[in-house]
């Protein structure tokens, strides 16, 4: 297939793809609960006579489209499936019907684009060599994430892809454009949990209690100061504490204080060092105040690194498909993505699809209750995914 043929094929099913996206948007499901979403996707694939396996790493779906010489090269395309615990505030016909759950991160678009790509590639197997594995992944939004579960279930084996491509919507780019960054692109993420304990008591009698509030406060300040002081140059480091639970009163010092936060960085060695800093400082400060501090750091997703050569291939293919002027160079982001699990094992390219339209008022950020997309992006995203897959599987 040439570019014109890809665009024509996608254009013919554009309305169907919009219907699919709206169906998915209307019926969002949270991480690890994507049962109905998986059933819907599986039925579409079955109706299109596309073989696939279900219940991989949870509710994940995997299949392989074989070209003329399936063993020559194998690549993978991935889309995530889960939604967020957000109450939608859009006034549209396809608004979420699942109260308190919304596709506010565009995963409905990701699934739709991959479905469109799979359908067209399956109908044009004689147009490419090798094989294309497609992956619908659950639970991207919640630790430990669906990628690691699918990897444990063998998603990168039998057959083993040489590379993997992931697409994500991006409201900072106008529809008709894409963005990508080679090398380090997105941060690692860790959930920091501190539990400070001591004798609670009457605030007016200092000798009767251990000041858990003061201990927690000093731990927060000291840890942040240490991280800021020693943070390596070149990439940002984020350590933010978002919640403190201290169930005391005006004159009551609680016996327990809980502090939770997030730590993000772009250097895995520095990441390990900060874990040690948090533990050491927390324990030292707690002891100073005759309290204890239990430190639990829930290690999340690793740093996402886009393969240099693969990213260059993507840029070239995208420039052919939508024009060089519409391919943007992105900056590093302290947000995270469990696509990084795959890129630790095989070369990957994670790129961004423009979905904003200022004239239509489609400008809301990801994870917001008014997030939406210009649905023209679905046609562009589907075609771009197909064209990249064809170029990469054919080694063009």
Structure characterization notes:
The chain has 396 residues and is an alpha/beta fold. It has 2 domains: 3-186 and 303-393, Zn peptidases (Aminopeptidase, 3-Layer(aba) Sandwich); 190-299, Alpha-Beta Plaits (2-Layer Sandwich), CATH 3.30.70.360. It is 34% helix and 24% strand. It contains 10 helices and 16 strands. It has helices at 3-12, 14-26, 35-47, 107-122, 146-152, 212-230, 268-288, 308-322, 340-343, 376-393; strands at residues 53-56, 60-66, 74-80, 131-137, 163-174, 178-180, 183-186, 190-197, 201-202, 238-245, 252-253, 256-264, 292-299, 304-306, 327-329, 348-356. The strands form 4 sheets. An 8-stranded mixed beta sheet has the order 1-2-4-3-5-16-6-15, sandwiched between helices. A 4-stranded antiparallel beta sheet has the order 10-12-8-13, covered by helices on one side. Helix 1 crosses helix 10 (376-393), helix 2 packs antiparallel against helix 4 and helix 4 packs across helix 10. The protein starts with a helix and ends with a helix. The relative contact order is 0.19.
